[in-house]
Specification:
By secondary structure, the protein is an all-alpha fold. It has 3 domains: about 50 residues, Homeodomain-like (Arc Repressor Mutant, subunit A), CATH 1.10.10; about 130 residues, Tetracycline Repressor, domain 2; about 35 residues, no CATH class. The protein has 10 helices and 2 strands, in the order H-H-H-H-H-H-H-H-H-E-E-H.
Length: about 240
């Protein structure tokens, strides 16, 4: 029934647009009553993401069962569960990606879903690194890196219309994360702090020369993946 409702909803979204489609329209197209819709989806926005709750549960179960020998590899493998969910139905995934680009409210909803994945990964890592001091920081930063890397590869595939192998770009991105974070953590050597240029209107500044410095100013509570994404964009521009 979840699939029937989701398919009916997307048919209408493509025909009429998201904003002009109502729950009554969806249940009429699916041939069921309103009660059936709300039994499976709390809102019209939720029908756009019918598989994320199941995927999040699968990720949580997977992380609970892995051993402690390779925590970074474990969260990278957990992120691939999300990739497989998208790859299982390329047509639907591409349609959803295009729809979320067009509807700001859906984009906001999607960001909240991404944040839940990130929190799940970070929670697993905190259990391995500790919840105090650098352990918590390390867990948050690695989780954000994994999510950013996964989403970068996934979106390349979605922007292509679902052509080719979605795992190739994601594997490459996650391998970069593992290459950085699987090195043993140790104390950072003392370094003289360089003089920083004044922040520009974008909140990101870049120095010049061999010792380039990038400074980002973000509001409190900004998701770590968003910070990483903006820094990566600044690096590319500079």
């Amino acid at each position: 029934m979840r699939e029937v409702l989701a398919q009916a909803a997307f048919q209408l979204f493509l025909e009429r647009g998201f904003e002009r489609t109502t729950v009554d329209d969806i249940v009429a197209r699916a041939g069921v009553g309103r009660r059936s819709f709300f039994r499976y989806f709390p809102s019209k926005e939720d029908v756009v993401f019918p598989d994320h709750e199941r995927c999040l549960a699968e990720m949580t179960e997977f992380l609970a069962a892995v051993d402690d020998s390779d925590p970074v590899g474990a969260v990278c493998d957990a992120a691939r569960i999300v990739l497989r969910m998208y790859a299982a139905d390329p047509e639907f995934s591409v349609q959803r990606y295009r729809l979320t680009r067009e509807v700001p409210g859906l984009r906001t909803y999607e960001l909240s879903v991404v944040r839940r994945y990130e929190q799940t990964l970070a929670g697993h890592l905190r259990g391995r690194f500790g919840a105090d001091g650098d352990g918590e920081l390390r867990a948050e930063v690695i989780a954000a890196s994994v999510v950013a890397a996964h989403n970068n590869g996934l979106r390349l595939w979605l922007r292509s219309g679902g052509a080719g192998d979605p795992e190739a770009a994601v594997d490459h991105a996650l391998d970069l994360v593992r290459g950085v974070w699987e090195r043993p953590a140790g104390p950072s050597p003392a370094r003289e702090k360089p003089a920083l240029p004044a922040a520009g209107p974008s909140g990101i500044t870049a120095g010049s020369g061999d010792n380039e410095v990038i400074v980002m100013v973000a509001s409190k509570g900004t998701p770590m993946w968003r910070v990483v994404q903006q820094i990566e964009a600044a690096v590319g521009e500079s």
